[in-house]
Amino acid sequence: MKLEDLYRQVIMDHYKNPRNKGLVKNEDYKEVHLHNPSCGDDITIEVKIEDGHIKDIKHDGVGCSICCSSASVMSETLEGKSVDEAKEIVNDFFEMIQGDTLSEEKEDKLGEALAYKGVSQFPARIKCATLAWKACEKALEDGDKDE
Ligand code: FES
Hints:
- The chain has one domain: Alpha-Beta Complex (Sufe protein. Chain: A), CATH 3.90.1010.
- The chain is built from 5 helices and 3 strands.
- It has helices spanning 3-16, 65-78, 83-97, 104-110, 123-146, and strands at 29-35, 42-50, 53-62.
- The chain has a 3-stranded antiparallel sheet with strand order 1-2-3, with helices on one face.
- It is globular.
- The N and C termini lie far apart (47 Å).
- The mean pLDDT is 95.
- Bound molecules: FE2/S2 (inorganic) cluster.
C-alpha cells in the first residue's frame, strides 16, 4: 500500500470513528472553543491536566473531515504526555503542516498525526488540520497560568 493511501485511511478512520468525541463539561477540564472563520466550522476541546500530565482530552464540534479527524488523532497523540512534551508535539505538528522536515524522533512522536503531512501542499486546508491542535495549545497555555 502506498503511504498516501495509508494516510488517507487513517484520516477516514478517525473521521468515521472519532476517538474521545463528546464533551464531559466538568470543571476539572480546561475548555477552549475555536472557530475557523473561513468556513464557519468550529471545534471545542477539553483537556484534563493532572500532575503536569494530560490525563484526558475530549473534543466536539463541526468541521470537514480533515478538521474532525485531526481532533481525534490529536486527542490520542497527546493523551498521557507531559504538558511540556505535548507542547513540543503540537509545535512539531505545526512545523510539519508548514512543510518543514522533522527529525525521525519527532516524526515518531507524531505517530498517526503524520497522516496530515500532505496538507502542507494545500494551504487552504492548513487551518482545517490545525484548528483542534491550536485549541489544545491554548488549553495547555491556560493550564500553565493556573499553576
Ligand atoms: Fe471547515 Fe475544514 S472546511 S474546518
